Amino acid sequence: MDNKDILSAKRTIDKEVEALRMMEDELNGTLTQALDLMQNTKGRVIVTGMGKSGHVGSKIAATLASTGTPSFFVHPGEASHGDLGMLTKDDVVLAISNSGETKELSDIILYCKRYNIPLIAISKNPNSTLGKMGDILLKLPDDGEACPLGLAPTSSTTATMVLGDILAVCLLERRGFSKTDFRQRHPGGKLGSYLLKVSDLMHKDKEMPLVKTGTPLQTALLEMTSKMLGCVGIVSNDNKLIGIITDGDLRRNLSADMLTKTADDIMTHNPKCVGPDILAAEAINTMNTTGKGITQLFVVEDQKPIGIIHMHDCLRAGVA
């Protein structure tokens, strides 16, 4: 890439950042009004727009839906051929048009007015058809495009995308949307695996390798072998976890009289444990940072084991 290309790239970045700064300076109470409307609607947020605005609108609708605000995109052309029936009086419409004069939006605008469906307009022009017809106007910066011809949607679509992110993040914070909520909407892919909790992957009930304190080591080894998790936990008489025996513990304690001992004689006292609600990724970090190269952790509540998670369980689920 030569210097001319780099200079062009920097001009584009500077122009788009300038537009975002302008939008930042123009933020006002209409944003809060729009958020109130979107948060309190009994229905969905219906996003619509034509051309590049439509592409950005699809992304905004997807982001809203994945962060706790029921939303979907309606193409204005399809709306004119039956999809207006997807709108209800309980919904809110978010209509995007940089100029505010996109003729394909006319049927949706009229439908909203006819059936008293709240309309939030996103446009640079308050005096446009969309700007005037909207119940609330979220103004885009009127600072031209990064395109040197001033024609290709560049700065305007970037500003629209950021405005959509602002709405999604503000609503997310208002709703107290959590990592757990986010994971429920992202069960697949890397995001889904990253947000898996220990409780989603742990072995529990009869799958846990456990013996009581004072159990002969030979019996503990049989329990450890049958559960095939590379360890066995030792619990007190009141079922609290007091120790663990791993493959490493066995190697370190090899002796001619080893099988005459009890599990308590060679166990590691007060083993590292985790709670059921932490992320599996955090459990892996705990395994990797203990300094002992452990590959399994007991999951406890009130010091009582309720499960066990193995490094291999995390890797199979795509958590790394």
**Architecture of the largest domain, according to CATH?**
3-Layer(aba) Sandwich
Q: In one word, what is the shape?
A: elongated
Order of helices and strands: HHEHEHEHEHEHHHHEHEEHHEEHEEH
In percent terms, what proportion of residues is strand? 15-25%
Q: Using DSSP, what is the number of strands? A: 12
The largest pleated sheet is described as: 5 strands, parallel
Strand arrangement, major sheet? 2-1-3-4-5
CATH-defined fold name of the largest domain: Rossmann fold
The helix count comes to 15
Arithmetic mean pLDDT: 90
Distance between the termini: 36 Å
What would you say about this model in short?
The chain is built from 15 helices and twelve strands. It has 320 residues and is α/β, with parallel strands linked by helices.
Describe this structure in words.
The structure is a single chain. The chain is of the alpha/beta class. The chain folds into two domains: 3-177, Glucose-6-phosphate isomerase like protein, domain 1 (Rossmann fold, 3-Layer(aba) Sandwich), CATH 3.40.50.10490; 198-316, CBS-domain. The protein is built from 15 helices and twelve strands. It has helices at 3-26, 29-40, 52-66, 76-79, 106-114, 129-133, 155-175, 179-184, 189-194, 198-201, 217-227, 247-252, 263-266, 280-289, 311-316, and strands at 45-49, 71-73, 92-96, 119-123, 136-139, 210-212, 231-235, 241-246, 268-269, 273-274, 296-301, 304-310. A five-stranded parallel β-sheet has the order 2-1-3-4-5, with helices on both faces. Strands 6-7-8-9 form a four-stranded mixed β-sheet. Helix 1 (3-26) crosses helix 7. The longest helix is centred in the N-terminal third of the chain and has 24 residues, at 3-26. The radius of gyration is 29 Å and the shape is elongated. The two termini are 36 Å apart. The mean pLDDT is 90.
